[in-house]
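Q&A log
Question type: sequence-to-structure
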Amino acid sequence: MLAGIAPAQARTSVKILHVFLAAGQSNMSGRGLPVGGANDAEDPRIFQYGAKVRSFRPATVPLDMHDSATGISPATTMAREYLKTQPANVGVLVIPAAHGQTGFTGAHGALTWTVGAASAPKVDLPNLAVTQTLEGIAAAKAAGYTVVLKGVLWHQGENNSQMSAATYAAKLDQLIAFFRSKLAAPTLPFVLGRMSPEGIAIVPGRNNVDRSQQETPARVLFTAFAPSKAGGVNRGDTTHFSRSGVQYLGSSYLSAYWRAARVTSIPLSAPVPAIRGTAKVGSTLTVAHVNWTPGTVRLSYQWYRSHVAIVGATGATYRPSAADVGRTLTVKVTGSKSGYASVSRISPGAGKVTWGTLSSAAPSIRGTAKVGATLTAVPGSWGPGTVRLSYQWYRSHRAISGATGRTYKPVSADKGRTLTVTVKGSRPGFPTTSRISAGAAKVTSPTW
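Response status: OK
Response body:
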């Protein structure tokens, strides 16, 4: 096990890691601003194997890219979107290998993405990316994970504005073939993200690169093009995407990835459900509303008692019963939509169910406290639902044998004594509750 890295079983429920190589130049490296705060807290399902610090560890914002990233990368936002479509035991390992201001070049001493053109190993970006990927996969396996290489995320082109569309296409196609050969994955999906529309419009020559990139899926199998949005750039900068632009690219990359991977039944994007309410008999638990995408998704529910399905509990709400006391409740939400693969998500436990609390009122006695008259216990309102009530009458605080009905007729032994009644409420899943009435007036003799 690598130093400082907990085994898979100790950190989270993640057992499988899907690996994505993030390559290209500055936008893939990460320039999306602003960053920080709760939105960029460590995600226990996203890992990285850094370019500068070669260790397997939780992913950060910015990622540990080949250069010094300053903002969020579309590799991160794509990973977040991708995980919404995956079961809880799947995580993502990002291989952050991008470097700003790089491209296809044969210039001596320059960092280059051109296969076979580097003047020294330290500037050979394709080989460096492959080595980093293989090291990252090995490190994740050593930490106890099952690892699956899933694809390459590419964002580049700004540095090759002087290149013709045909020349750029030849260099790019050669790079795709190189990655697939060296990583022993001949159908490895390769997704190209579009440069900013503002930069394409302003900088001469970028339209050639843009055209070449958009035509790649027609030239190379298992590739796809991910559009970007206008207006998603940092202030005063027409090249680098802002946080909103990177968020958009994350979703765009995911949609393109499904096309590149030839996934015909696309999984729905599904967050983990949560349970709202108190885990207590008689209360109501509700599945908190979460946003399933795309569009309108049909949801179905199944509640579980300590991992065993509860017969008939298939609604968005559930009222715990006596059978649930001491057990943990969870709910599975399944989303379905025509043209998409159904996805199920299971909530965390709602805590062990506790006994409910009966609501009750102090009883009263109706009638005249007179020998031979009829006294009636008025129990008041009890709940929730139907509560079984029982009665015991008392003569000056001593139980009267056999006086266990709702009514009682005082006898001569009661004359001059005070009568009270205790009402006891019981219901499965609730502790028994007793309430005692105020005393009736002292019993008098009958009037003849």
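Response note: Residues 1-10 have pLDDT under 50 and may be disordered.
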